[in-house]
Amino acid sequence: MLTVFDHSLDQSSSALLSMLCELYFKAYLVSGISLIIIFDKCISASNTCVQQKDCEGRKVCVNNICVRAKALGKKCFVDNDCGYNRICKYKLCWQPEDSSCYRDGDCPKGDTSTSKIGTIGQRCANEGRCYTPNAFCLYNYCQCKPNSVYDGVKCIQLVELGEPCGEENAPCRAQNSKCIDGTCQCIENYILEGRECKRVKKLDLGQFCMSDEQCAPSYSICERSAPNEQGRCACRQQTSKQDNVCRPLDGKVKKCVVRQIKNEVSYPVTDKGGCPENYYCVSMGSFTAKELKGSYIIEEIGICCPAITPTCPVGEPEPVPANYCESECPKKTHFCLKDENMVGVATCCLKPCLWNNVYINKSCTVPLRIGEACEKQSECVLNNANCEEVEKGVHVCVCSKREIEFKGKCIEPKCPSQRQPLMSNSRIVRCNPYTAPCKSNYRCDEKYGICCPR
């Protein structure tokens, strides 16, 4: 876990830090940044040592300094008999006492602070130096330089988008980016805009684009003459533009339904969508949504294939061996067409939408997380959420009144007794067993955070 040290502490924040001297290190949240402050130890000004016999009484030698310690009652002959960070003295195990501080005034009478050239989180003089590479002294504490983080040993410079990464676990600076194939790149469903990764906005055929992810129609790509040049959304090979969508040139696709998914439960479909005789329904690799009685059901759509051998719905299959289809078929643009009736047969075929985009009404939609801004219902449907107006002009993916968010999806929770949870203003009452207990006759269910009848 990397610890980021803030570089913009104000005077009040500095004053807050100056009041602390309890442990060797503490964690604080200042201006939204997590800080770990490591304090110096209190020692007697003349209390230096080389070996344990140099320290008198109830003191032990740690890093050439005599520090107070407490006896643990365990007998020993050498330090290893006592365990990590413990000392064997007088044939007894001793534990150095916590006597951390950051200034002489916090130490017992006659002791002084051991502040030297600091490492990250330790005290330093404004004009002093910090031992950790790429660190500097700010508000009397050693901190990493801007755009760098502390990995526990040194300050590592954050890597910009497009720059090499991976060496020494150097992290990427931009939000929604990660190290992919040795280069900092935007994650799935995000696109580079300037120096940041922005969520993809879907475009129609003919509109200007910079990547395939931006094009909404199924089987479409961003057609560019050069990698870094702007292009336009166009239909892939072996498809053509018809009614502003891309349709297969050979017209061999006949759609059917493989299975339906409701509340994470899969229901195989016995009626294979009316495939002709000697044909069967095979998944196209994308999901769609069907409105039924005011709610949406997720359907895995397919195409009717001949019963003899699997046939790609659009275009020719990728030249991938059947035994290596799952590992070598490019997951971004293709899927492995398989059927339980043909053991060992798999074909790498083009799918309508890139990655996990949702295929609805011949268009590809980026699935949004609960709480993200939305424009249409189809963007929220994979999480069982609704695109609702939360304030004037602002629409967000939210759960319905009788549902809660659980593991990124909207579900209708049930109490262990299968009884209904406590409701208020037609919404489920949320609780926390430690800070927000339920009313009498109810208890807080820890799994869902809802109030259930006792």
Automatic annotation (TrEMBL):
Annotated ranges, domain DUF7107: 48-95
> Where on the tree of life does the source sit, at the highest rank?
Eukaryota
| Domain EB: start-end pairs | 150-197, 353-410
The name this protein carries in UniProt is: EB domain-containing protein
Q: Which organism is it from?
A: Trichinella papuae
Species classification? Eukaryota, Metazoa, Ecdysozoa, Nematoda, Enoplea
